Amino acid sequence: MKTNSGTTALVASLAFLSIGRASAHIGYGGRDFGSYLGTPQSNPASISITNISSDFGWAAATDANFGDSHRTRAFRFNLASPGTVILTVQGGPGLLPGVSLYGGLGHLAPVQGSHDAAALSQQYLAGLSGPTKMGALNALDDWAIGNDPTYTIPDDPLSGVLYAASLRYFDYIGNVADGTSTNYGSASGINGDGNADGFITATFNLPAGDYSFFLGGANLASESPGPTWTNYGATVSLTVIPEPSCAALAALSCALLFRRKR
Ligand SMILES: [Ca+2]
Ligand SMILES: [Ca+2]
């Protein structure tokens, strides 16, 4: 990420004041697919949600002023070993889904959750080049987001800091969006599926690790009329296929060699 120290924290603070709201921080409650390719395994086949709080939140995060993470919902999963992940989303009525996948996780308990308006988030975003950011979410590149300190006595800064505020980093892997640029806009790097039917799917070959994906609406035109908080639903499914191990590949090549010799 390029930085520009000429952008002032004050500008960012004012921008965040203008979009201030009381809303949830980034979390994975009810949206955790668990760990795959280890033992034991008990992963949900699919997860349905009803609280994607706009139909444009993903597309709004594809431009230079980023987007408000509150307008999307975060999911997580873990791979205990390398594998191929097939992600599908069926949007509910009115939702053209868009998804971006990242390595890494937001802040987890017991520390405070990540959120766009945290002082650390604002400080970080103010140091980036380009226009004043509308939020921390970058649907097409790496991004970072901060949290608030945890005080020894909740909400009492004078009681001392139990856990200091920090930044968490999301390492961009890829995206998929429903429809065409008519739906999600003209940002370069969007993988539209060409058919705005509410359904998207994407396949990723991934090393072992922790992953987050952010699901939101891909209907960019809805951003302009102004903020409304209509909720949209979606059903998300993951299929994980293990990468063949070296031992398995060696055994296969031996078997083929043996058959050829016979
Ligand atoms: Ca934006
Ligand atoms: Ca589609």
Present the secondary structure layout:
Blueprint: H1 9-18, E1 32-36, E2 46-52, E3 73-79, E4 83-91, E5 97-103, H2 119-126, E6 143-146, E7 150-153, E8 156-163, E9 167-177, H3 181-184, E10 199-206, E11 209-217, E12 232-242, H4 246-261
Parallel strand pairs: 1-3
Antiparallel strand pairs: 2-12, 3-11, 4-10, 4-12, 5-9, 5-11, 6-9, 7-8
Helix pairs in contact: 1-2
The chain binds calcium ion (CA) (2 copies).
| Number of helices in the DSSP assignment | 4
Separation of the first and last Cα atoms: 58 Å
CA-based shape: globular
Count of individual domains: 1
Task: Quickly give the structural class.
Answer: alpha+beta
Quick one: biggest sheet?
Answer: 6 strands, mixed
Rounded to an integer in angstroms, the radius of gyration calculated over CA atoms is: 20 Å
Percent of residues in beta strands:
25-35%
Extract low-pLDDT stretches: 1-22
